[in-house]
Amino acid sequence: MKSKAVIFLLVLFVTAASLLMNGCRKTGLNITPIAFTVPSGFPQPQYNFGSNPLTEEGFQLGKKLFFDGRLSLDSAFPCSSCHQPVAAFTTFEHDRSHGYNHSHTLRNAPGLFNIAWLSEYNQDGSAKTLDEVYRGHITNAHEMAENVPEVLSRLTADAAYKQMFKAAFGDEKITEDRMYKALSQFVLSLVSADSKYDKVKRGEANFDAQEQQGYTVFQSKCAACHKEPMFTDYTYRNNGLAIDSSLNDHGRMRVTGNGNDDLKFRVPSLRNCDLTSYYGHDGRYSFFRIMIQHYRDGAIVKSPTLDPLLTNGLSINATEEDALVAFIRTLSDSTFLNNPRFRQ
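Predicted structure:
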């Protein structure tokens, strides 16, 4: 696995460097390529970096855009207002994110990390590309509530942005495609792979007795859906949450129109779970311990699309629950959380 990752990294770096150098010869652009490193034990990413090679100039432009409120109608809601670094890039201690004119979004914002391994986006898979995600957030009346031409006009009027777009793309032209490419370069760089769990797997640390017990519980009762090392299998499942009648969110079925997808949402990653309160697709649970108790205390709602693995709930006693909580906390990545490169 390690050798495959190294080979992938070398091929990716050579390909990206070739593309960038060819572009440089045509434009005189002085850019700094960034190699995307696949962490030890991780699978190969799904994102095609050949279509958008990472550069330091593109990353810095994407970072500025990510934290800039001018992408929203009233300049109060940048991407970072819902995806906050302090909470592993989700909304800190809110059930659902807030948007323009005191609106609330439909769902709890997922943490933004390890996005390069996704092949579809949003909790229901409604977006096939990251461009669709950005456009959807910018134009959604309950989120940023703006239109793309107005955003581009606003950015074009800023001399600093003109220089940054020129540094990243060769000239000062500010386009929707370039804006999204830069945002992607920042977002795709948000890789979380240095938790205590990762250090244990690399032989750099050891679980204590309770964490090891929790890992055993996890492997026997949770790993079928929250598959290591990403701690999700990226499938869409109905985990038995009762529908909130005020939101009427039927999940994946909203996308496919197929009744077999009713109430199904993508399995979330458990990485950084201790940092990303609240929980559930609509943020109905304030602590992940309560989320665990949903599975063990008979709260699962039976329905035709309920995941078969949850038909009888999960048998977890109080001691096992405590141990499982201890293990999940080993998935918190303080290196990622405190990385100044990802902060404004």
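Summary: Strands lie at 98-99, 103-104, 236-237, 265-266.
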